[in-house]
Amino acid sequence: MATAETESTKQKETKQKELVVCSHNEWDPLEEVIVGRVSGGAVPPWHVTLQAATPKESWELLKLLSGKPAPDAMVQAAQRDLDQFIHILQSEGITVRRPDPIPQTNPFSTPDWQAESGYNVANPRDGLLVVGEEIIETPMAWRSRYFEVHAYRALLHEYFQAGAQWTAAPKPQLADSLYNEDWELPEKGEPLQFAVNESECCFDAADFARCGRDLFVTRSNATNQFGIEWLRRHLGERYGVHEIKTQSRQPMHIDTTFVPLCPGKVLYSPDFLDPNNVPEILKSWEFLPAPRPVNTMVQMIDLSSTWLSMNVLMLDEKRVVCEASQEPLIEKLTEWGFEPIPCPYANYYVYGGAFHCSTLDIRRRGSLQSYF
Ligand code: ABU
């Protein structure tokens, strides 16, 4: 005979099954994920927000190629890596969904400004944030990304029709006054400068890491305090939003600085984070220093820091998809008790992301918990 306890467990499981969007953290067993596309992408138009987020060595080429379609050879190489990644996910029993192939190469304008082109739909992690059963469109700071979310509309409609909560943060105007046009790369040890000020609310979802009832965020060249405060108030008292101070001179997304792997363990970049300078709440967590990245630069243009090496995707508390050539990281993760799944992905980096950036976990099996 079923006890009251098993009945209630069964009810919970049934409820969980019905939730089409449900992801509370970065490590519960992954069931459904959106994976980005590389076709139809453009080299992002030159802008101070791009300059502030990309290696200095890439600036001249980025200016030269500004707004042009991504070269074919680049698309094909990235597609080969992407196919392998998708194959791994599907072989692990995970449902893979894709954005619509809407070309991002056309110019467009708003009443306030014009953009030479869009960017790409390679990184769903930036424009959409899943917190529990809610999916939130984020107010991204790059003008080239203003309409990127349209590639996800069909999926958003489907998730909404199936019962998900769908919200859009206030759409910013992205007026000229938002940008600090005189941004300069600070010398090592100098105070950080940011390409966006506080005149409008903006944030990228990839500046947030989710650990159940607590989220961690970095102020960056895409996320300002206005954006952080908007999300804090929106989520309300059920959640804590804690700021992680990055030492990156070009901060853009928390997932190359601070990557929670499972309850109590976080992978961090020793260049970007001082584990002695983190919110008090994290004091009981183990900080695992990521080994120095193996140089994987295969394309002429580089949009990200080398710490994309640690931009891994957890399939559950153990299995972790890592870039195949990052052997020191793979070795360390194994030593720390994880089960790395290597996948070549260096050709994708030119799209500005790796496994975490290029995915959006829609559903992970688990419930809302506090880990602190
Ligand atoms: N989109 C992730 C890139 C972050 C970085 O350049 O460190």
Would you summarize the structure shown here?
With 372 residues, this protein is α/β, with parallel strands linked by helices. Helices cover 21% and strands 18% of the residues.
Structure description:
The protein is of the alpha/beta class and about 375 residues long. It is about 20% helix and about 20% strand. It is built from eight helices and 17 strands. The chain has helices at about 5-20, 50, 60-65, 70-90, 125, 155-160, 225-235, 325-335, and strands at about 30-35, 95, 110, 115, 130, 135, 165-170, 210, 215, 240-245, 260, 265-270, 285-290, 315, 320-325, 340-345, 360-365. The strands form six sheets. Strands 2-1-17 form a three-stranded mixed sheet, covered by helices on one side. A three-stranded mixed sheet has the order 5-6-7. It has a three-stranded mixed sheet with strand order 8-9-10, with helices on one face. Helix 8 links the parallel strand 15 (about 320-325) and strand 16. The relative contact order is 0.18. Gamma-amino-butanoic acid (ABU) binds near residues 256, 307, 308, 353 and 357. Gamma-amino-butanoic acid binds next to loops.
Sheet of most strands: 3 strands, mixed
Rg value = 20 Å
Q: Number of DSSP helices? A: 8
Question: Portion of residues in helices?
Answer: 10-25%
Strand share of the residues? 15-25%
Low-confidence stretches: 1-7
Measured between the Cα atoms of the first and last residue, the distance is 37 Å
